[in-house]
Amino acid sequence: MDKNRAWSLLQEMSFVRVAGSKEDLKTANILKAHCDEAGVPAVIEEFEIENAVITEATLEVLEPEHCSFPVIGIGKTPNTKKDGAIGGFKYIENALDSNLTDVKDKIVLVNGPRLMPPTMKKLAEKGALGYILTGGDFYEEDSIKKELRPTSAFGDDNPLPGIKIHMDDAEKLVRCNPVKVRMVLKNRKKKETAHNVIATIEGSDLKDEVIIFSAHCDSVPYSKGSWDNATGSVTVMELMHYFNKHRPRRTMKFLWCGAEEIGLVGSRKYCETHKDELDKVIFNINFDMTGVTLGYEHVCCSCSEETMHAIQYLANIENYPLDIELGMYSSDSSSFARAGVPACTFARLNPRGGAQIHNHHDNMDHLDPDSFMITANFVAKFGDQIGNAAVNPIPRKFAEKVTKAIEEQKRFFPGAEKGEKKPSEKKEEKPAKKSAGKAAKK
User: Fold this and answer.
1) Rounded distance between C-alpha atoms, residue 87 and residue 76, angstroms
2) Could you report the per-residue pLDDT of 381-407, keeping only the tens digit for each?
């Protein structure tokens, strides 16, 4: 393991890398070049994604006094009529049933960056005209308030147009007691190409059993994504270097996933494309944000309790302080768990008030080469153990808590499991909740 080599690649990858952009392909080529140079040839797999192009998004109060607010559109929701959607206004808070008693012919304001499909369906059935979601927080600096993260609705059958407003402006909107408002949304879907990168080190006598190390390599708009998730990508690269030098008995694959930030698309595509190979995959070890100077080590286990306890046991032996839990993390490990493969995500997360993601502050300022190696060094030891064990130590089963989380996700996102195999016991954005550093993700 070489922290200087890792730091150099981290610097090389610190640029905005939005899924489907030319920078997306640049990232894939950088990763492939490093693999090829190390003597572990990599392949780039293209896959199609559907991004939203917002051409117009506005919100104005017509009565009692005219005013307007800056907003962004929510992609994959219906366009309003040419003159917009005009109606009353209601703040429905968390959209509980008791909030929805009087939404007919109104545009509603809802807390939070996402609206679950069942709630959207209820709003449509009750006659709402459209919805407004909130983003950001009161205490952000002004430059970040202009960086509301673009959002697309879940699925393709969304009945209502949607827009997003910053938290500051949402408060002003409520306080002006609107009687009549107008929202305009015009958007279209655009097909683009994203990329996964895959390198393989074949095992010796147990080569038919496979361990996959993964991390996503895309970023969100405005963000260089140094922490989220160039660090995870570089961790996978360092592990590839390590196991290229210390050849394992089992085959190891190194997977850099594209389009994670728009719904774990790259890892889902990998599981769909390679579904006939997943029976050989005994474990997925994913990384999503490592290397932050002030932070703590965390792992979310989408696997059996036995596997979680084994990780904790080794952590204690190695004096590796670890916050560990069972659940489904909002990262690529969840795609593997839904496909029936035991998985986990390692992260080094921030304390409250620490480093930030999903804005222009996600750069290298709060990262550190020595902190970066904390996660990588532990997982190299763990990977050595499972990669060279005489008998596969990872049960192909899931703890009850994980099974329930998988089924809950499939209930909300019924299309997500396409191409996935059902396990024998069976994911802003961290388990079904996400930990502090990732609270805004996905």
Assistant:
1) 22
2) 999 999 999 999 999 999 999 999 999
Q: Rounded distance, CA 370 to CA 373, Å?
A: 5
Which candidate, 132, 433, 353, 119, places its Cα nearest to that of 441?
433
Assigned CATH topology for domain 65-178: Glucose Oxidase; domain 1 (3.50.30)
Contact 109, 91 (CB under 8 A): yes
Judge if 3-51+192-438 and 65-178 fold alike in CATH terms.
Answer: no
Domain ranges of the chain: 3-51+192-438, 65-178
Q: Which fold has domain 3-51+192-438?
A: Aminopeptidase (3.40.630)
DSSP state for residue 423 in the 8-state scheme: P
Q: Is the model's pTM score more than 0.85?
A: yes
Q: Would you state the structure tokens that stand for residue 35, as one six-digit string?
A: 């693999």
CA separation, residue 224 to residues 7, 77, 149 (Å) = 15, 28, 14
Q: Name 128's Cβ contacts closer than 8 Å, sequence gap at least 6.
A: 103, 104, 105, 106, 107, 108, 160
